[in-house]
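Sharing a chain and its predicted structure for anyone who wants a worked example. Both blocks are below, sequence first, tokens second.
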Amino acid sequence: MTAGGRELISARWWLVPGWWKRSLKEVPSTFNARVETVDTSAMFRDSFKRRRCIVPASGFYEWTGPKEDRTPHYFSAADGGLLGIAGLWDRWRNPEGADIISCTMVVRDADEWTSKYHDRMPSFLQPDQFNAWMSGEAGKEILRSTPPQLQEWIVSKQVNKTGQGDDDPRSIELSLI
């Protein structure tokens, strides 16, 4: 939050802690922060205490099926609104001296509905929880709040082809279930 309120900024996905001394390629898997260890893991605990954010999302993907033939599913809010995902951010200075702002989302055990697709899910925040999360007043209990009602579609397998057509709008074309 800034003095004028919240601001929307672009950040690199995959949290890089400000204290990181190695190369960017050597950062371990930090694209998700598990709610169970978000306050104790060396990679996340400082951001949990001091640098929280909300990751706005129109939806998210999960894949099901055998590794050689994965089916992508797209999830969004049932009411069509934006989703607010609990996140963390940090600022890291690379060896060339440039600041990189990075972020991650907090994930939790899946609820009953989502567990059909994956054993984890994002930690969603309701709008009335945003201030408590951002200010640090809320502890980990907020990260296990009841998620919004979601809807699911099976989508084009184009989303499985990393590096091929990443900007192709057909990647999110909805298929009939």
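Comments welcome. The chain has two helices and ten strands.
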